[in-house]
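Q: How would the structure tokens look for this protein?
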Amino acid sequence: MKETPRPRRVAIADDSPAFLAAAATYVSTLPGFKLAGTARTAPQMLELVESSMPDVVLLDLGLAPKRAIELVQKVKAAPAAPAVVALALFDTPEALAAAKRAGADALVGKESFIAGLARALARLFPGAA
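A: Here is the predicted structure in token form.
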């Protein structure tokens, strides 16, 4: 009998309550994924990563605009570091360059969140769904 893989845990960090709620609702509907928690500040996000040990963090680069690179590096330095999908208002070459400099595994523009996240998760976790 084939064993069912465990759902991948997703943590979301964004300072917009409306976006955070919509993203959490969407992630909760994705087959093969489970919401690990949400955070609205950088300190809350770091605590969430430590306490819930997610497989992936959706991290708004605007959460700590002057420290986004440092924030991603802190997440990536965690034991069993999760993948980081950087979130930016728009998926532009500049935002992609900033995300890559920060060490993010992928970038998703909020203007195309649903399609962009689906592509990023499929690339990071082939066969998760």
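The chain has a mean pLDDT of 90.

The chain is about 45% helix and 20% strand.

Upvote if useful.
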